[in-house]
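Dear colleague,

Thank you for sharing your sequence with our group. We've completed the structure prediction you requested, and as agreed, I am returning the results in plain text so they can be pasted directly into your records. Please verify that the sequence below matches your submission; if there's any discrepancy, let me know and we will rerun it promptly.
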Amino acid sequence: MSAHAGRIDVHFHVVPPFYRSAVEAAGFGPARGAFPDWTPELALGVMDRFGIGFSFPSVTFPGVQFMDPESAREMARRCNVYSRDIAASAPQRFGAFALVPMHEPQTAVGEIGYALDELGHDGVCLFTSYGNRFLGDASFDPVMAALDARSAVVFIHPTFSPPSQAVGLLPGFAMEYPFDTTRAAANLIFSHTLERYPNIRFILSHAGGTLPFLAWRLSVSPLIAPKAMPMAPARVLEGVRHFWYDTALSPGRTAMTALDEFAAPERVLFGSDWPYANADVVAQAVSVYETPGLISPSRRSGIDRENSLALFPRLAA
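Please find the predicted structure tokens below.
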């Protein structure tokens, strides 16, 4: 069944009510400080307002890593079934990215298989880091192997590594989120994870954090420290271009120009970050994104819809 016409939003969130209660009871909360309201009806209303025909809701920070392994497994399963039910209620409007419990590789691989093979999720959401381990760490190789075998789409959402949590200059989503995205992306490149698992389609949030700005600097860093970073500059830039990038909270000329320089044009996707970016923020972002002369109509058409249809061909089927 083809998707509803309109933008395809790869950075859109879901807040299951039982998940919200569990997080609040444990004394945790989202990066913005409090959970926003979420219902399918609110989601569809925002989608209609901003011309979003289809979205892929995902559960974001803090995920389930604050729980013990068994509780995390159970909560991830409940969230993934909930997301499946939301998608089934409006299949022309919602897909789903699965939440993965990452305490133990075997459990993570099992939930990936269940979510993708049994529930029919469109991809998975992984966080940039789990404790002090960033994506690209060798301990995650079994998870990467399972994703590579399925040519899975992996939406990478930032979270707070312990050093990021300790900074405390501003609310973490303002600066630390983009920095942790950059750390994860760089680690995926320099750990050779992208080369060892080439079939995984990684989407980076928020225009890749600071990765596009730092791409050239990272590419020449091996010339400065070859023992610490043994990789040819051209291979680093190939890694940067391997990623897909969403536009969530990154609609302006500076971010879009940086993506023009380093991202493959067919790998830039629309993202809103609703509801953590509330409707007023999304309205401002869309207004900036649609500024005449910012990007060409053909490029906007690719970002809005065509690039996602290539990544998720079932939507055009």
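Summary note from our side: The chain has one domain: 7-316.

Kind regards,
the structure core
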